């Protein structure tokens, strides 16, 4: 698997909801930083560490169902390499294609994420927090300031993005198992 495919997987999971830039935050997601860790996973390719991810939930558990986001969760990704916004978007598109998402849907979703995804450097984080229907993207750059960079109001995109990591058809089943706490 090449770096391009790994990046696509990451982006795809982040982009499963319709997104619009905004600074609004639903009250029920305000305390996501205090949620419990469900699971953690490391994505590496050959000798290169790409990112470390963790899934958080209010109760510290993930309930599996046909719905990828049956309850509030937060997906935090800490990057270990420089990755451009274009690479993240391309990796996300690639993952959605492998998961069988049709071209018109992929195009619509990626257009919503275009202005949200930043380029990332080692140590920076992209966090997606969802109530199960909609969500917010946060970015924590080198200055350690956590900033909301976009909002997703499309439940299909919300689920599509998180399916990259949490869906039963994820291209990374071992990573999924670690994130949802199956390896505890």
* Largest sheet report: 7 strands, antiparallel
Number of domains: 1
Strand order of the largest sheet: 1-7-6-5-4-3-2
End-to-end C-alpha gap:
27 Å
Radius of gyration: 14 Å
Count of DSSP E strands? Answer: 7
Q: Briefly note the structural class of the backbone.
A: alpha+beta
Mean pLDDT: 85
CATH architecture: 3-Layer(bba) Sandwich
- Are there runs of 5+ residues with pLDDT below 50, and where? 3-27
Write down the CATH class: Alpha Beta
Q: Order of SSEs, N→C?
A: HEEEEHHEEEHH
The rough form would be described as: globular
Helix content: 25-40%
CATH T-level topology:
Chalcone isomerase
Strand content: 25-35%
GO molecular function: intramolecular lyase activity
Organism: Vibrio hangzhouensis
InterPro entries: Chalcone_isomerase, Chalcone_isomerase_sf
Protein name: Chalcone isomerase-like
Outline the structure in words.
The structure is a single chain. The protein has one domain (3-179): Chalcone isomerase (3-Layer(bba) Sandwich), CATH 3.50.70.10. It is 30% helix and 28% strand. With 184 residues, the chain is an alpha+beta fold. The longest helix has 14 residues, at 85-98.
Q: SSE layout and pairings?
A:
Layout: H1 3-14, E1 18-20, E2 36-45, E3 48-57, E4 73-79, H2 85-98, H3 103-113, E5 125-130, E6 135-140, E7 146-154, H4 155-166, H5 173-179
Antiparallel strand pairs: 1-7, 2-3, 3-4, 4-5, 5-6, 6-7
Helix pairs in contact: 1-2, 1-4, 2-3
């Amino acid at each position: 698997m090449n770096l391009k495919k790994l990046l696509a997987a990451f982006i795809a999971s982040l982009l499963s909801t319709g997104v619009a830039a905004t600074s609004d935050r639903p009250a029920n997601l305000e305390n996501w930083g205090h949620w419990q860790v469900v699971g953690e996973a490391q994505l590496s390719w050959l000798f290169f560490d790409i990112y470390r991810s963790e899934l958080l939930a209010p109760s510290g558990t993930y309930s599996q169902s046909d719905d990828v986001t049956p309850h509030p969760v937060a997906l935090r990704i800490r990057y270990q390499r420089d990755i451009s916004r274009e690479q993240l978007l391309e990796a996300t598109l690639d993952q959605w294609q492998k998961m069988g998402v049709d071209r018109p849907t992929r195009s619509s979703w990626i257009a919503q994420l275009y202005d949200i995804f930043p380029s990332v450097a080692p140590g920076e984080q992209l966090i997606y927090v969802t109530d199960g229907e909609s969500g917010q993207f946060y970015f924590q750059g080198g200055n350690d300031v956590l900033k909301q960079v976009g909002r997703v109001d499309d439940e299909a995109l919300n689920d599509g993005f998180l399916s990259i990591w949490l869906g039963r058809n994820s291209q990374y089943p071992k990573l999924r198992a670690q994130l949802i706490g199956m390896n505890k």
